[in-house]
Fold this sequence. Notes:
2 copies of one chain form a homodimer. The first copy, chain A, has helices at residues 10-22, 27-37, 46-59, 82-107, and strands at 24-26, 62-68, 74-80. By secondary structure, chain A is of the alpha+beta class. Chain A has a 3-stranded antiparallel β-sheet with strand order 1-3-2. In chain A, strand 2 and strand 3 form a beta hairpin. Chain A is globular, with a radius of gyration of 15 Å. Chain A binds a DNA duplex through residues 5-9, 11, 26-28, 44-48, 50-52, 54-55, 69, 71-76.
Amino acid sequence: MQRDEIPPGTLYLLILKSLARSGEMHGYEIADSIQRVSNDVLQVEEGSLYPALQRMLIKGWVIAKWGTTAGNRRARYYQLTAAGRKQLAVEMSQFERVIGAITRVIEAV
Amino acid sequence: MQRDEIPPGTLYLLILKSLARSGEMHGYEIADSIQRVSNDVLQVEEGSLYPALQRMLIKGWVIAKWGTTAGNRRARYYQLTAAGRKQLAVEMSQFERVIGAITRVIEAV
DNA sequence: CCACTGGCATAGTCTAACTATGCCAAGAGG
DNA sequence: CCTCTTGGCATAGTTAGACTATGCCAGTGG
């Protein structure tokens, strides 16, 4: 099964949604969760994930705290803020709007 | 109605599909057609369109010839090549695949 | 004559996903 | 004990491509 890039702009959406669903996760969990739920179609590279998380911290969409994993490793746990939940709603509706429009174009006769 | 950006990567798809539908068009027509069919959601700026068309010429997905519009203006008419039609099929299935995957993620419970 | 519109084009900026790489700690295997 | 693998975070640098701003030229209309 071939690799697929994450369409630019949708990574925030994927992360926000994953955190909304699971409450609190560290980086690896997020990447893993996205890959799993998408049936291995979407692969989030670490070099994309961590910069995105940093930007999301700055924007105030998530907060982070250091903790320890089940496997006894140090990890940074991310959690949505109220702003993050609001942003998720915005991105969802934008996504649907734009994808709907594109679909209309590529399905037009 | 607010402006929306074209998600990077999908512009080729939109242009290819528009040309496949209409046979032969010049730049303005392409932009116009995309905007119209998408119900004004998608607006293709000239600074995005012409560079994209240049890249598509280089890739051999389209050919261009100079002509004259109904309004008696000089214009460059673009037309799909066989490679362009093949590329359209590739981009369509990739789009569906990736968008389907994203949809699975953002609709997961 | 001049402003407007249609049309093409490029230079330069910016976002964001990628590749490659590095660090550190915990277990596993020899 | 030591090395290897794995889990985990992080950044530097590259690249693609859509954007803004701008310029040019030719018809047409007031």
